[in-house]
Amino acid sequence: MKNPELQILVYGIDIANYQIELSDKIQIKEVIKTENPNYVFININTDDVKNSTFKINFKSGKRTIESYTYELKNRKRGSAERNSFSSKDVMYLAMPDRFANGDISNDSQPNLTEKGNRSLPSGRHGGDLRGIINNLDYLQNLGVTALWLTPANQDNEKKTSYHGYAQTDLYKIDGRYGTNEEYLELSRDLQQRGMMLIQDYVTNHWGISHWMIQDLPTKDWIHQFKDGEGKYGFKRSNYRTTSQFDTNVSEIDKKEALNGWFDTTMPDLNQSNPLVLKYLTQNAIWWIEYAELGGLRVDTYPYNDKMAMAKWAKAITAEYPNFNIVGEAWMYNPAHISYWQKDSKIAAIDNYNSNLPSVMDFTLFTDLPNALKEEESWDKGMIKIYNSFGNDFLYPDINNVLVFFENHDTERFNEIFKGDVRYYKMAMTLIATVRGIPQIYYGSEIGMKGDKNKGGDADIRRDFPGGWETDKQNAFNPKSQTLEQKEFHDFTQKLLNWRKGKDVIHTGKTKHYMPKEKVYVYFRYNDKEKVMVIINNNEKEQTFELSRFAESLEATTKGKVIISGKEIPVSAQNKMTISGKSSLILELK
Ligand SMILES: [Ca+2]
Ligand SMILES: [Ca+2]
Fold first, then answer.
1. How distant, in Å, are the alpha carbons of 70, 129, 230, 470 from that of 180?
2. What is the pTM of this model?
């Protein structure tokens, strides 16, 4: 690696009471001991290591009590330049437990507490990596190119562990999903298809059953509150992460936001402890290298120590200069979100640079369904979408922003609009043609619903139909999709596959025109191509003069309709008609 320093954590009863020696005359730079004698941290310089393995010997006087063989693998060829996700890609978010069960023999594991039980909405349903590998044709044909899985590492909490965000072993895939080798197999299968795997990384917290939480290396490994509850001083976060940059903030609010726990089973990690930060950094790099990852998605980004996270992102991107990392900064103001993107001028006011390449457009996510369902007025309805893009100047790299209308934590879009495919098509058209990286959520492409308000998180994370052998219907196979599923699916498939080759969408500029009569029009353009997008949220068919768009249309005479392929006359001298509640994408000629 570019950074030759390595910290090896050794765990064992009273291990700190022994002398430590390395074989092959490898020099130890430093041995760090903590108040817990069961841990030692050994710093070495890997440039000093000539062989692929060496021994760590633990001695008492002249006697060797214990010896461990450590393997140092070579870096994989080309790993520094591996392709990472960008605006060329479409990201598909799936939950491994809920997508497909490809191996019923791993549903329950003797060493893992929660057993497979599909009848429990928040239980383990048995989905796994094999199920995903078996359905890669489906994803590839759909037109997605990047697969974001919610955490697949071991989460051995007693219940509701299926979401994976309370990890108990950061170096091991959960046995109910498969093995580390299968995770690598999935990544390689994806790469062979020109696709990539994105890991969901959690720096803010681990599961309370994590072996290191059960025997803390240092008391300050996690945040504990003197007036908190239980053995570990639990206090819930107030979730007010604007405290990260609020110049008027009170210390108590800031402390409770950043150091409070995300949930009772998720002890809040102290990234300002250099040992914690080193562990998180080395672990992330290990996964990128081992599993040949195409990117990271970082959970609960603004809940972390921001100075430590800037170092974390810098250490990773120093090893992998093309590597993309998107942080979940779930905030409601574009200035607040843009603060977290690398080289943000907003953050520079605060003398801060996150080094984080990508963020998520949570304001568009919030505005989009409202815009489509509200009565129009001065500040309501389609104008919300127009106003949302008016904030693009705040982002240092607007093409590296995730655009989405739902994820695993939000109400399902098709639930909000009662399964009305017209709304889905308008929203999909928008996220597939505006700047940024479209991110879609499993099942919506076949019209899946789920009500978070009534059924909680489990209801927006239902099983994909056809992923289980006993399922009555299989939506993975287009031939056995219902007519309704087919309408969602075919539209998505055509749109995403069209988008694949379109530089003008990936990196082109945008020019948009304020909505009139609930019709929103924008153009994506570069030196070679021009695409016109029209979204009509009016129930009625709309006919309008194109002269208002003359500065974009220029000498255009016709346009090819995506998805039908039909050519129609389009010019600034003519009118255009678009049917109610629909969208139109035109490649202009
Ligand atoms: Ca299984
Ligand atoms: Ca925190």
1. 18, 10, 34, 27
2. 0.97
